[in-house]
Amino acid sequence: MKKKTLGIIIVSVLGAAAIFCSAMFTHQYLDAKNSKAAFDDLTNLITEIDEPQKTTEAEKADLSAEELAAAEAALAHEKYDALFAQNNDFIGWIRIDGTNVNYPVMQTPNKPDFYLKRSFDKSYSDYGVPYIDEACMTGISNNLVIYGHHMNDGSMFTGLMKYRNKSFWEGHKTITFDTLTDRHQYEVIAVFKTVVYTDSSDSFKYYEFTDAENAAEFDAYVAKCKELSLYDTGVSAEYVDKLISLSTCEYSRNNGRLVVVAKRVD
């Protein structure tokens, strides 16, 4: 009798586990499907602009530097205005050719990590939306730290993992990151792996560097990125440059992160 009871318990536990796993798989499948559809819809909201023509028109108008900057800001806002109208946490758009990275970027200074597990419409999602560290200010901070998930289906910031190979970097040295006031190209200067949330000697708290008080502090950050880089890009940065540091999970170590650092070049 005891053996029969034990058998029933084991079968029940295994059955419950199977149901749980099936439910989790269904949830992940639907979340992935809904996430892709939602981001596709957002991409369709971007207003296509004949940028070369607009630039030529502005140059021919013989505008001052301030007027050119205002014209550029107007173009950037026109391009992404529909996205901002849907959610004013929207702060920019990031794209990397050769990867699936082609997403809106969010920021919530008063709610850190809000989009870690939120979709663009603020509903729950394991995929989240790439977002900028709350301490950063676009156009002002020396370094914009942008976080994105490493998903098994290759979406979000998983594409950053391709930069582990120098051959990929050689063909994809440029990252596009637009905001509501600027449209910019960034050149990769370093790609490195580190660990976070630990005081061990191999931990580099790159996420703490957003604003340099002086050139020495900026140079120290760049030097550390170059020291840890998986390969030499032959490109560096100076205090006058603006940086972005793209961060995603890296699973060779506990709390591992892969970071791609690039400087604005246009």
If you had to describe this structure to a student in words, what would you say it looks like?
The chain has five helices and eight strands; from the N terminus they run αααββββαββαββ. It has 266 residues and is of the alpha+beta class. Strands 2-1-5-6-8-7-4-3 form an eight-stranded mixed sheet. α2 (51-60) packs antiparallel against α3. The longest helix has 42 residues, at 2-43. The relative contact order is 0.12.
List the helices and strands and how they pair.
Blueprint: H1 2-43, H2 51-60, H3 65-86, E1 90-95, E2 102-106, E3 131-132, E4 143-147, H4 166-171, E5 174-179, E6 183-195, H5 215-228, E7 243-249, E8 256-264
Parallel strand pairs: 4-7
Antiparallel strand pairs: 1-2, 1-5, 3-4, 5-6, 6-8, 7-8
Q: Key terms for this structure?
A:
alpha+beta, 8-stranded mixed β-sheet, 8 strands, 35% helix, globular
Q: Biggest sheet: strands side by side, in what order?
A: 2-1-5-6-8-7-4-3
Mean pLDDT: 85
How is the biggest beta sheet arranged?
Answer: 8 strands, mixed
- Helix content range: 25-40%
Low-pLDDT stretches are 20-25
How does the helix and strand content classify structurally?
alpha+beta
**Estimated share of beta-strand residues:** 15-25%
Number of beta strands:
8
Cα-based radius of gyration, to the nearest Å:
22 Å
